[in-house]
Amino acid sequence: MLAGAAFISCCGITSGWLSAIGDARAQTVAQPVTRQEVAQEEIAGPQTQTKTPLYSLPPQSTMREVRWSEITGRDNSDIPAFFRDSLVQVVARTYYLTRDNLDGSRSRAWTGGGWIAYRSGLIADHFGVHGALYTSQPLFADPNEGGTRLLNPQQEQLSMLGQAYGFAQFGDQELRGGRTLIDTPLINPQDNRMVPNTFESVMATTLPSKNREYDYSVGYIWTIKQRDSNDFIPLSDAAAGADVINRGAPYGMVKYRPSAIPGLSTIAMDYYLQDFVNTGFAQAEYTFQLPKDMPQWLIGANVIDQRSVDDALLGTFATYQASGRVQMQYVGFTAFIAGSATGDQSKIFSPFGTKPNYTDMQQVSFDNAREKAVGASLAYDLGYAFGKYGLSGLTFGAWYSHGWDAINPVTNAAIANRDELDLWAQYRPSDGPLKGLRVKVQYSDLWQQGNVRSPQPEFRFIVDYTVLFRN
């Protein structure tokens, strides 16, 4: 999930310590624009396990921050902690997407909106609440050009209370219950449209701490609000694409970064959706410990294991997808090569978030049954050489992958090979009057023979502006 350029995604308090796990993506910075998820950006939490309050947050380099004292003009030390230590994040976003689909149709919309998120201080040093209101309003949306997931399938507006939960904090552990974000490799916000996936769940999770070798998140999820919906539906309905049976899922994830092996990071997780599927995931990445003036190398490998269970309402199968990556960063450049292979009994089902394989691109994930894929990317951070000329925060890159040998697992018939090219550019200043702004442009072409149209071009233009209000 970390392939690509030296990018840092945008926005804030709806993630990190507000998502299911603290520093999921903070350990490396190389991530292509196509994989960035705004709601998942890390906001650093406590830098010690128990002694530093959760709300002693260091300044954030990627968003505009405003102190409550700057607004009120007074010392807030005499205000109760529930209010004094509260955080409010405001994210304004506009998003345009157009795609000429392989079947000859078009998907297109231009929307405006964003969200307001609130997290309280602690009552009695342990208890608090969190909430987030999301909206996506159509600025231009033809009812006959749906499918962008910026709005609902009928191209109508989205507005909902996406997060609303209470939490109890004990040291660097937190218990949560209600409507939450969850940030794991297999279940996550997938916030690459206007609003993210959110979930109704109960969970226990660690808060960020650089002094701890592990992180974990465990819980039970019963519903999901998908990116293009106002409604929370059972996980089973999201998996089946229809109202079949009401099922939720327990899940567990652990991340381990052994201090004895600097640069090594491992992840393991699993979820079990009764009568549908059991999905497991494991990943190991190693960043070589080299002098800063040398090329920086990273290698990684992961595997998804997925199989039907119980009544097998998705069909009977046992499949997998394995992928690997080699990446190098040097003098502002980031280059990587990646490859993947999928088992022949089924495609990979991923109804609850972005897929964690290294060949997951802007349009496709190269995870059809028996499909193999290989790809490469090159990106450049202009700020490395030209930051003093006002180009700090400007990055761009390209990513190309080829997939072959896919089949229909029911008929065993061959599926045509496919290729995807992604191009992107992003501007995100870390200081000055535009701090908090992110402008991102993405273009992609997908080629596959046997369709009404090929290639399938897709263009995205996104502007975010984020302000965090804090004590």
Can you tell me about this structure?
The chain has an 18-stranded antiparallel β-barrel. Strand 19 and strand 20 (456-470) form a beta hairpin. The radius of gyration is 22 Å and the shape is globular. It has four helices and 20 strands. With 471 residues, the chain is mainly β. It has one domain (16-470): Porin (Beta Barrel), CATH 2.40.160.10.
What sort of overall outline do the alpha carbons produce when their principal axes are compared?
A: globular
Query: How many runs of DSSP E, i.e. beta strands?
Result: 20
Coarse structural class: mainly beta
Whole-angstrom Rg: 22 Å
Name of the CATH homologous superfamily: Porin
Helices and strands, in N-to-C order?
EHHEEEEEEEEHEEEEEEEHEEEE
Number of helices: 4
User: Approximately how much helix is present in the residues?
Assistant: under 10%
Summarize the structure.
The protein is mainly beta.
Walk me through the topology.
Layout: E1 64-67, H1 68-72, H2 81-84, E2 87-100, E3 106-119, E4 127-140, E5 158-170, E6 173-180, E7 198-206, E8 214-225, E9 232-234, H3 235-240, E10 249-256, E11 264-273, E12 277-287, E13 296-308, E14 318-330, E15 333-342, E16 372-381, H4 383-386, E17 394-404, E18 418-427, E19 437-448, E20 456-470
